[in-house]
Amino acid sequence: MILDSFRLDGKTAIVTGASTGLGQGMALSLAEAGANIVGVDYVEMPETKQVIEATGRKFHGIVADLMTTKPIPGLVQEAVDVFGSIDVLVNNAGIIRRMDAIDFSEKDWDDVMNINLKTVFFFCQAVAKQYMKQNTGGKIINIASMLSFQGGIRVPSYTASKSGVMGITRLMANEWAKFNININAIAPGYMATNNTAPIRADENRSQAILDRIPADRWGEPRDLAGPVVFLASEASSYINGYTIAVDGGWLAR
Length: 253
Prior knowledge:
With 253 residues, the chain is an alpha/beta fold. It has helices at residues 21-32, 46-53, 72-83, 106-134, 156-176, 197-201, 203-212, 225-232; strands at residues 12-16, 36-41, 59-63, 88-91, 138-143, 181-188, 243-246. It has one domain (9-193, 220-248): NAD(P)-binding Rossmann-like Domain (Rossmann fold), CATH 3.40.50. A seven-stranded parallel sheet has the order 3-2-1-4-5-6-7, sandwiched between helices. Helix 4 (106-134) links the parallel strand 4 (88-91) and strand 5 (138-143). The radius of gyration is 17 Å and the shape is globular. The model has no long low-confidence stretch (mean pLDDT 97).
């Protein structure tokens, strides 16, 4: 049956940035589809643990600072030690810094690029090596952005990093598809999360955004449920190197 190809029973998924927002929502969706979850964030994740375990699946939280690549080998090994193998990686953790390009600081550039792009690449690399060691193949889902396609304003390092995410997703798919590794990305549109709180608090800016979204609403974490489960499952086994926009029609305008 076709619906069986979407099931993730017995799978293990690592989700970074899993404490709130899109990361928590995607972790919950993967658990609802049958996966056990390894959540990674710089803070404890008691709420995520509660909602995952309420589905009957297991949750293992790891507190780590992904501003550097140093924790990555230990994170991969801990996931394997706890659940025996890894089947899915969702690279969701990221930050944003807002300032006019003319005044943007080197620190804000480096901080955003480090977690949004450098860590993403080396986490993909480490998990791909684990997939090859397991000889199982596996799924990697990177979180891109509308700014993977557009320039935006006042977020130069974020735009650069998310454009880079789409680029390296394509490159790694080219190199690793032969190992039965599927690497794709999701590009969320304007979502009601912590990152967009300042924009949503600005009534005029928020309305200007809504005026351009055909769906006439901000996205919610639940809007990523279907896409993330699809890309994590066998249903997407012949999709590789692609970035799916989940934007309420934003890019269509």
